[in-house]
Amino acid sequence: MNLIVLAIPVFFLLIAVEWIAARILEPDAYRFSDSVADLGCGILDQVVDVFTKTLVFAGYLLLYDRFRMFSIPETSPWTWAACFVGVDFLYYWFHRFGHEVNAGWAAHVVHHQSEEYNLTVALRQGAFQQLFSWAFYLPLALLGFPPLVFLTSSALNTLYQFWIHTRLVGRLGPLEWVMNTPSHHRVHHGRNPKYIDRNHAGVFIVWDRLFGTFKEEEEEPVYGITTPVRTFDPVRAHFRHWAAMARLAARTPRWGDRLRIFVKPPGWRPADLGGFDAPPEVDRDTYRKFDVPVGKAVKVYVFVQFVALNLFSAWFLARQQDLAAGLRVALGLAIVWSVASLSALLDGRRWAPAFEGFRASTQVVLGALFFRP
Q1: Residue 131 host element (H or E)
Q2: Is 0.85 topped by the overall pTM?
Q3: φ and ψ at 113, to 5 degrees?
Q4: Is residue 283 part of a domain?
């Protein structure tokens, strides 16, 4: 079972509850275009996962089947508890890698690009993170934790992190010493220099306290990244930092420096390009978020189409194993095309209406051909 896919209806229910509450408590917590972009990134993450999950899990299965040191019983509650803690410990190091190594940041940065902080941001995940993350969990396979226990623990770790993406929950008393909370995770999403690369925990904040990356929330952060993405297009957002690293590598003449750009921390520059680019201070009172004015008619159209896209994506995720490989690829590309086209409308691209008209009409025709009774 894919617990993340099964939880999607609950995610949307909780998002609706938070949106209603935010209308009273934090009226600026949600913006339509930003939330659509967040959910679009989540769709891309799940679609890419359809094609990569077998590949990235193969290493775990191989090590468990051939090289495990112990045969840990699957039915023992201690097995489940130990694996859950182990997953969270290794998640901390993967997450820290995603902030302190530029290539890892390129895969993870998508999650931090939103300039808002609400439950839709929890679903804004980088589609390429699993290409890095799987390696961090291989010690659990070598120890002998059964694959089902590992997969379930990993999914529960991800599910826990959903609720901490909110501005509506304040400090939680003694719980703050042990568990990751909304307050701790707000710090993690801040672009203020003192908050950057802090609080990497998934479930247990004790890892940050132990390894020197903990930071208490003081004033509310300015959310986002130091170089705002300035688009609501999830497809462009996924490749933006990779392209920036490639451009930087092309500007420096030494091959060693070109390689270092990908393995050094974000902000590192070779000496001939000026050295380290420190994150600038930011003032919450004067900071202006990226926005593109769009008419009500465009928002209504995008909303209707996006609801339909989410329903189709849910069907695709539920039926993926029943589909022929070619059809699975075609439908995955159609979903990506839809996300990009609707996002172009929210970005105010001049060519977007014609592109969307072509996209919608083409997919209606192809859908009628492929899915006729």
Answers
A1: helix 130-133
A2: yes
A3: -75, -25
A4: no
Domain boundary among 182, 211, 240: 211
- Long-range contact pairs involving 223-227 (C-beta distance under 8 Å, separation at least 24): 223/114, 223/115, 223/116, 223/117, 223/186, 223/189, 223/190, 223/191, 224/112, 224/113, 224/114, 224/115, 224/189, 224/191, 224/289, 225/109, 225/112, 225/113, 225/191, 226/191, 226/196, 226/267, 226/279, 226/280
Contact 347, 233 (CB under 8 A): yes
* % residues pLDDT > 90 (the chain): 91
* pLDDT tens sequence across 198-210: 999 999 999 999 9
Domain extent, residue 22, equals 3-211
Q: What is the pLDDT of residues 82-130, one digit of tens each?
A: 999 999 999 999 999 999 999 999 999 999 999 999 999 999 999 999 9
Please give the full DSSP string across 82-125, using - where no structure is assigned: HHHHHHHHHHHHHHHHHHHSHHHHHHHGGGG--SS-SHHHHT--
Number of domains in the chain: 2
Confirm whether 111 is domain-assigned.
yes
Is 260 within the bounds of a domain? no
Who contacts 249 (Cβ-Cβ below 8 Å, separation ≥6)?
Answer: 257, 258, 261, 262
The lowest-confidence range among 45-49, 149-153, 189-193, 320-324 is 320-324
164, 165, 194, 210, 316 from 216: Cα distances, Å = 15, 16, 10, 14, 42
Nearest residue to 208 (alpha-carbon basis) of 96, 105, 100: 96
Looking at 191, 211, 231, the residue that finishes a domain is 211
